[in-house]
């Protein structure tokens, strides 16, 4: 039965919800749904994880959703008139996510029956990253997993799709923050010192190697220390409040909006994309905010809004990389790794305005 033939608004919404749960493609041209917690709207057939029913709002068309403050999903492209576009991009993503060497552009084009130039152009437009770069990022994720589970570094390197140890070491070190062998060894040989500070946000953990800060996190002491131990299980980790006193005083002052952290040295792992996003965040002045879309534009990837949000969520050094200064396009607060109340408090002390 066509959805628009329903007369009861309640029945109409129930029918639409069942279409969303079932990822029904036959309704893709009849309505779209938006998710309040993410600020994103999608087609009913979108392959993304299903939201909770109470967080879903329905609209007759993408324009209505945009006028309500939502932005389009990058996976299902609900503003595109070509429903098939989202399907072949999902197919390519699944192929690129498989372990092994990164397929060539020609191989990917043949897989979906399209020209290489069209695949390159459209994939980059929809995903904010080229197919090759997407595949390399996924291969690095596989290497992380294999280094934890494989019997040797060499087997992990080849199982992850690298054709030699030298290539793996050259490409992987920027994303791991250390060589593959040291990553596999859980930070064996690394010396990490930390301190715990009390602040109006809660307890802060500040941790560093001899190179720079590896973590600035907000929470409770036992949880925060356990997180660092889990990331570097074989590193030498100890507390030394005096050694970290200069850095910790600066970080603590930043929680009150009276310190500039841009010159503090860091020793953190990052993918190439994360590094670009985090560098962009560090130039946002205190007292100002930028939307995820504006940050995407700052790094030259205007459609990579969701990827920017993921990079913000992965930030290991709160305050130093000020991901709290990134908000939704309407000025409202989106997710924050260390709690929305802390995000709101930080913006307030810095003198920035938000809609929440």
How would you characterize the overall build of this protein?
This protein is an alpha/beta fold and 356 residues long. The chain has 3 domains: 3-72, DNA Methylphosphotriester Repair Domain (3-Layer(aba) Sandwich); 134-184; 191-356, Arc Repressor Mutant, subunit A. The chain has helices spanning 9-21, 62-67, 83-96, 105-112, 116-127, 131-149, 153-159, 165-176, 180-184, 221-231, 245-254, 272-281, 292-298, 305-313, 340-350, and strands at 32-35, 40-42, 56-59, 71-72, 191-199, 202-208, 213-219, 236-239, 290-291, 326-327. A 4-stranded mixed sheet has the order 3-1-2-4. Strands 7-6-5-8 form a 4-stranded mixed sheet, with helices on both faces. Strands 9-10 form a two-stranded parallel sheet. Strand 6 and strand 7 (213-219) form a beta hairpin. Helix 4 (105-112) crosses helix 5, helix 6 (131-149) runs antiparallel to helix 7 and helix 13 packs across helix 14 (305-313). It is globular, with a radius of gyration of 23 Å. The two termini are 41 Å apart. Mean pLDDT is 79; it is low at 1-7 and 163-181.
């Amino acid at each position: 039965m066509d959805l628009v033939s329903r007369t009861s608004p309640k029945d109409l919404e129930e029918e639409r919800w069942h279409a969303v749960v079932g990822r029904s493609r036959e309704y893709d041209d009849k309505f779209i749904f938006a998710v309040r917690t993410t600020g994103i709207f999608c087609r009913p057939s979108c392959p993304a994880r299903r939201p909770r029913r109470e967080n879903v709002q329905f609209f007759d068309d993408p324009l209505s959703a945009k006028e309500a403050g939502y932005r389009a999903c990058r996976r299902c492209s609900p503003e595109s008139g070509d429903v098939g576009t989202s399907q072949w991009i999902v197919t390519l993503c699944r192929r690129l996510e498989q372990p092994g060497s990164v397929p060539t552009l020609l191989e990917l084009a043949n897989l979906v029956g399209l020209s290489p130039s069209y695949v390159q152009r459209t994939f980059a437009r929809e995903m904010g990253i080229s197919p090759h770069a997407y595949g390399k990022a996924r291969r690095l994720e596989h290497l992380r997993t294999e280094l934890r589970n494989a019997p040797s570094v060499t087997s992990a390197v080849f199982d992850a799709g690298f054709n030699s140890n030298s290539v793996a070491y050259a490409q992987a070190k920027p994303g791991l923050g250390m060589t593959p062998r040291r990553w596999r060894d859980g930070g064996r040989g690394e010396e990490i010192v930390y301190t715990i500070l009390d602040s109006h946000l809660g307890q802060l953990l500040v941790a560093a190697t001899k190179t720079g800060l590896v973590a600035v996190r907000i929470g409770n002491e036992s949880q925060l220390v356990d997180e660092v131990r889990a990331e570097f299980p074989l590193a030498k980790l100890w507390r030394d409040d005096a050694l970290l006193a200069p850095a910790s005083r600066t970080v603590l002052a930043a929680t009150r909006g009276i310190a500039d952290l841009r010159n503090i040295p860091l020793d953190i792992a990052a993918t190439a994309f994360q590094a670009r996003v985090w560098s962009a965040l560090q130039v946002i002045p205190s007292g100002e905010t930028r939307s995820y879309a504006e940050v995407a534009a700052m790094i030259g990837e205007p459609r990579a809004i969701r990827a920017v949000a993921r990079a913000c969520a992965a930030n290991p050094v709160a305050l130093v990389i000020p991901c709290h200064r990134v908000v939704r396009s309407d000025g409202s607060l989106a997710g924050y790794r260390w709690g929305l109340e802390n995000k709101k408090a930080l913006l307030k002390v810095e003198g920035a305005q938000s809609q929440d």
